[in-house]
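Researcher: Structure prediction, please.
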Amino acid sequence: MALFQVEPVLWLQSFASPAVTWFFASITWLGTVKCLAAAVFFLAFAVRFRVGAAVLVLVLVNSLATDLLKDRFAIPRPGDVDQRVQQLSGDGAQPIAPQGGATGFWSSLPGATLEAARSTAGRSYAFPSGHVSSAAALTLSLALLFRSRRLWILPAVWIPLTGLSRVFLGRHYVADVLGGAALGAAVALFGWLLFGAEGRGLENGPWRRAGLIALASAALLLAVFVPGTDVVAVGRLVAMVMILFVLPARAFDEQVDPLFRLVRVAVAILLPFAAAPAVTALFEAIGAAGSARGAMLSEAILTLVAFGGGALAARFVPFAGRGRLPRATVGEA
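Model: Predicted structure follows.
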């Protein structure tokens, strides 16, 4: 195994077949934004609202931190530095050398390779792996916030599988996977300290609320002073901080049967889609459409609609209190 060498990538790709490629591509697909969003909506409106909101905050923090580190280190992907690497997923590779990977276990990529890759516009960077950091932040946060031993099987299985998929598909080096796992773990630990068990710590510690304000402020500063910051993620993060401040730990009765939980998830997902045309028209009318500030504000509004409106709607599902079921406390295992 080597940190920035392409040999581990080539070795894994030697086992490539249609079935194996499909399997690892499916693992990678489950780490996309759409799948992460679906998981968070289900968690918030079918399991525990406060935990879902806390996990979304952590996933957004992880996303911003990952992007910041990618731009800081600017490490080109394996397929961009070695023409032997197959690009089995994502954008097509543009190899700049026949064999331009690192020459030793602890070695970085050659300076000439880095300079050539960084001087070419349109490339995406490798370190750390965003898929792996997201998988680690999500699954470790669930295990820590729910305090359930059974949930530790999620990070134990999902993080290595995600890392293998990203290396096999030719998108990352081993170092990218290790860096992504470390970043996601750090974000999850930070979230456990900030939110407490089941996300209820905000009710007991003013310093925790101060921490949330600091997070939102840091994200806004990034959007203002760091070019290329994902302003959509910043808008969502600020909106979720507002949600956590405004809504109580029990925003609605969560002890309902599975059918009503799924109805709540569907309503929360549909609300921002229904509001999007009106929000777009509003920003076009004020001349803010297409600007970074407009994108950040519109995404913040839609996030408030989804989680604030979804929580309000959940108070009326089930109607008149029908379908309630007793439920054991999460984390008894």
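Model: Residues 320-333 have pLDDT under 50 and may be disordered.
Researcher: Thanks, that helps.
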